[in-house]
Design brief:
Shape: globular
Strand order of the largest sheet: 6-5-9-3-2-12-15-14
CATH superfamily of one domain: tricorn interacting facor f3 domain
CATH class of one domain: Mainly Beta
Number of strands: 32
Bound molecules: (3S)-3-amino-4-(1H-indol-3-yl)butanoic acid, zinc ion
Helix content: 25-40%
Largest sheet: 8 strands, mixed
Distance between the termini: 17 Å
CATH topology of one domain: Immunoglobulin-like
Strand content: 15-25%
Radius of gyration: 28 Å
Structural class: alpha+beta
CATH architecture of one domain: Sandwich
Length: 874
């Protein structure tokens, strides 16, 4: 397996002026005829260069150049390419290939899912359909004819607009699609099947009517309304926020059950994992509804950030993904509660992305090399990439940032460009020097900011000193200082916001301000202060860093109660909780008795009974830091001690605040029927959080309350709110309720996924045995990524069980991966991630985790995806 380096990039030798594809879809074999109009893009006076096309996993049927079949000696076929050593400057190449989509379990290229044909071409799936320069900087005009049996496949779709349709002999029919926009092969899509369609329309800001069509299985016809509504919201939002209008006459979305990732932004024809489309109140939780809105928005926003302006090469992946993540986060923030959305995004970044940065696969937002590009669809490229865009907006200000976006789209519409082109547009539009900022794209690792302060009472000056450093990462032992926007505020002891006046500036300054940190150590002086303030640091989580400031517990309590920025207010509570839990972890490790921390209980009670009107925010504030986040804070992770300490805290709070939890839950429950977007999702969340705390008491009366909620619930949010705690409850009712749930929902694949996950995530001692048994359950499907993730993926997130000291959890994961690797290497490689963090554990677990990685390493003919992850992590 070879490594590809960013610096080896060369422009393509041949470009494709146009491509005509004809698919004859069959039950046994599928025939693909491709006609490429190719043109040399280099100066031929310096010598002729061979035509090299990518292609694999199909049978080559015929090959001709300008209408004449190529003699066998005129071309060479290798495992991954077709080489034609001598070609004219401009010519037509016709290629005929034969495929077996029904055998394609990799789920890339053309494959079958649930009786339909569909495609997934990003990043390099197109090459398993036909020979092609399968790279994002070759843009072409596609015309696609799809031929299939009319009865089985009444719906035939591809990108763009329908051009022609008709009947053919033997009960077949065809439709020809034409996409007027030049696009790279990774944005090609095709769908054929017996599908229901729900329709709507959208009038763009310039008055054009766009037909919106959502295709799904007939049985799911009633489940697409929310996705379509979300699409219309996203289309309007992009016009209003970024001035971006949709460009084709129709926008199609297809839901498929077998899909490696979340969704795919193919031009005019998005293909979605059905879990990001289908929802009814009975089958989807509030969180599912929000995720659907976000992913629908994400794929729609790609139409500009990704499709109209695409990536020059895959090292530039964050150009489209970081930017689009930022756009979808902002969309969701505008649709929901901005503060709560920011907290959720920070939570994800600090668990998933920080773990990447601290592990053997750490890479910069713009990687320097890869073996398998599919392994680089990571939280670093996506979410940290999104944070870099957010920092640019903070540094430039909203107005100049928008000017930069406009300039970027204007300059590069129709092009395949680089991250550097994006940053240059931002620099040009703002006249800012972003030289140092560019290091964020090239240096991996999470910077640490250590802050300290002092106060001179005599002259009322508060001094903040900030030191930044960044730990070494693979291939990058030393780091240069980053350009970091540090947004700060100051509070007095009564919790009032103070003006932030930099020494030497006229008073009073604004109540929040952006400090630009760009050296290894920097000092800021704030004047005009009567008493020592409490600083609110990193408001809005203004940079993806770890911040260390020696807050005293009473500072944190003050920030929890009074800070104006929702992130900082939430973060104060998280820090306080983390301090307390980590000291319990130390007690547990030392064999000391665990004792309640009364100051923390008091602070928590104050929050619980504060009457905070944003119930979703309150739920976030009352949720203890996750086991994974706590693990991030420890030099050597002890999953058992973390679990015990966190459970002890939950039990302590539930014991001491029992009546408060009951009262808040009661106040948040409503007799009204559930409504999507009824404005009560925050209340449901808080009520269910209170129930989860109360269930830790293992009291019969509470268990009955929980079962009653399960039985009377009219929506999946409250059903799961009851089932989650029940799944971890050692009570006789548990198995009845879980059985009842399965029996009721066995016909709904997405709900059955929830059932598998509930069981895999249970706290109870028999969870590993249960997970093993579930592998043999008739509803378990090895080859369906959602199902595999629901059981095996969820189990690997169950910290105490996955990290069982005897290694049985690791063994279970690898036993299942050994079966999945031959079927789906891409999904297998992603699910290996929890094992790659072995260096963070004590020697016993380290050895067990490595041993399991070696079992995979020993497989003959390891696929490139898996090989790369295993080799880099061992
Ligand atoms: N751009 C899409 C990425 C994607 C993908 C990548 C590799 C293999 C399968 C895949 N399915 C979708 C999704 C997105 O970020 O919008
Ligand atoms: Zn994306």
């Amino acid at each position: 397996h070879t490594t590809i380096h960013r610096h080896d990039y060369r422009p393509p030798d041949y470009t494709v002026e146009s491509v005509d594809l004809r698919f004859e879809l069959g039950e046994d074999t599928t025939l693909v005829r491709s006609r490429l109009a190719l043109r040399a893009a280099y100066d031929r006076s310096g010598g002729e260069r061979p035509l090299v096309l990518d292609g694999h996993r199909f049978v080559l049927r015929s090959l001709s150049l300008d209408g004449t079949p190529l003699a066998p000696e005129a071309f060479q076929v290798s495992a991954e390419t077709l080489v034609v050593p001598s070609v004219p400057a401009s010519f037509t190449l016709e290629v005929e290939t034969e495929l077996r989509p029904q055998d394609n379990t990799f789920l890339e290229g053309l494959y079958r899912s649930n009786g339909m044909f569909c495609t997934q071409c990003e990043a390099q799936g197109f090459r398993s359909i036909t020979y092609y320069p399968d790279r994002p900087d070759v843009l072409s005009i596609f015309t696609v004819t799809v031929v299939a049996d009319r009865e089985r496949y009444p719906v035939l779709l591809s990108n763009g607009n329908p051009l022609d349709r008709g009947e053919l002999p033997d009960g077949r029919h065809f439709i020809t699609w034409h996409d007027p926009f030049r696009k790279p092969s990774y944005l090609f899509a095709l769908v054929a099947g017996r599908l229901a369609c729900i329709e709507d329309s959208f009038t763009t800001c310039s008055g054009r009517e766009v037909s919106l069509r959502l295709y799904l299985q007939e049985a799911n016809r009633n489940k697409g309304g929310h996705a379509l509504r979300s699409l219309k919201k996203a289309m309007r939002w992009d016009e209003e926020t970024f001035g971006r209008e949709y460009d084709l006459d129709c926008y199609m979305i297809v839901a498929v059950d077998d899909f490696n990732m979340g969704a795919m932004e193919n031009k005019g024809l998005n293909i979605f994992n059905s879990c990001y489309v289908l929802a009814t109140p009975e089958t989807a939780t509030d969180t599912d509804y929000q995720a659907i809105e976000e992913v629908i928005g994400h794929e729609y926003f790609h139409n500009w950030s990704g499709n109209r302006v695409t990536c020059r090469d895959w090292f530039q992946l964050s150009l489209k993904e970081g930017l689009t993540i930022f756009r979808d986060q902002e969309f969701s923030a505008d649709m929901e509660s901005r503060g709560v959305k920011r907290i959720a995004d920070v939570r994800y970044l600090r668990t998933a992305q920080f773990a990447e940065d601290g592990g053997p696969l750490a890479h910069p937002v713009r990687p320097e090399s890869y073996m398998e590009i599919n392994n680089f669809y990571t939280a670093t490229v996506y979410n940290k990439g999104g944070e870099l865009i957010r920092m640019l907006r903070t540094l430039l200000g909203a107005e100049r940032f928008r000017k930069g976006m406009d300039l970027y789209f204007e300059r590069h519409d129709g092009q395949a460009v680089t991250i550097e082109d994006f940053v240059q547009a931002m620099a040009d539009a703002s006249n800012m020097d972003l030289g140092q900022f560019r290091l964020w794209y090239s240096q991996a690792g999470t910077p640490l900011m250590e802050a300290s302060s002092s106060f001179e009472a005599a002259d009322g000056v508060f001094t903040l000193t900030v030191r930044q450093s960044c730990p070494p990462t693979p291939g990058q032992p030393d780091k240069q200082p980053f350009h970091i926007p540090l947004v700060v505020g100051l509070l007095d002891r009564a919790g009032r916001e103070l003006p932030v006046t930099l020494f030497g500036e006229p008073a009073p300054g604004p109540t929040t301000r952006i400090l630009e940190v760009n050296r290894a150590e920097q000092t800021f002086h704030f004047s005009g202060l009567d008493s020592e303030p409490v600083p609110a640091l990193l408001r809005g989580y203004s940079a993806p860093v770890k911040l260390d400031y020696p807050y005293r517990p009473d500072d944190l309590v003050l920030l929890m109660a009074h800070e104006t920025d929702p992130f900082c207010r939430w973060e104060a509570g998280q820090q306080l909780a983390a301090q307390v839990i980590l000291s319990l972890v130390a007690d547990q490790q030392a064999g000391r008795e665990l004792k309640p921390d009364q100051a923390f209980v008091a602070a928590y009670r104050a929050a619980l009974t504060s009457g905070e009107p944003d119930r979703a925010f309150l739920a976030e504030a009352l949720t203890l830091p996750s086991e994974k986040y706590l693990a991030e804070l420890m030099p050597v992770i002890d999953p058992e001690a973390i679990h015990i300490a966190r459970r002890f805290m939950i039990h302590t709070l539930a014991t001491q605040l029992r009546s408060d939890f009951l009262a808040v839950r009661e106040a948040c429950r409503s007799a009204l029927p559930y409504g999507v977007d009824d404005g009560r999702s925050g209340e449901r969340r808080l009520a269910n959080l209170c129930l989860a705390y109360l269930m830790s008491l293992e009291e019969q009366a509470i268990t009955e309350l929980c079962i009653q909620q399960y039985r009377t619930s009219d929506n999946m949010t409250d059903t799961m709110g009851a089932l989650g705690p029940l799944a971890s409850c050692d009570c006789p009712e548990r198995s009845q309720v879980l059985e009842d749930f399965y029996r009721h929902w066995q016909g709904d694949r997405l709900v059955v996924d929830k059932w598998f996950s509930l069981r895999a995530l249970s706290d109870l001692p028999g969870t590993l045995d249960d997970a093993r048994a579930l592998i043999g359950h008739p509803a378990f499907e090895l080859a369906n990524p959602n199902r595999f993730r629901a059981l095996v993926g969820a189990f690997s997130q169950n910290q105490p069980h996955f990290h069982a000291p005897d290694g049985a959890g690791y063994r279970f994961l690898v036993d299942q991966l050994l079966r999945l690797i031959p079927l789906n290497p891409q999904v297998s490689a992603r699910l290996l991630a929890p094992l790659t963090t072995w260096r963070r554990f004590e020697p016993g677990r380290q050895a067990l985790m490595q041993q399991e990685l070696r079992r995979i390493q020993a497989l003959p003919q390891l696929p490139r995806d898996v090989y790369e992850v295993v080799e880099k992590s061992l």
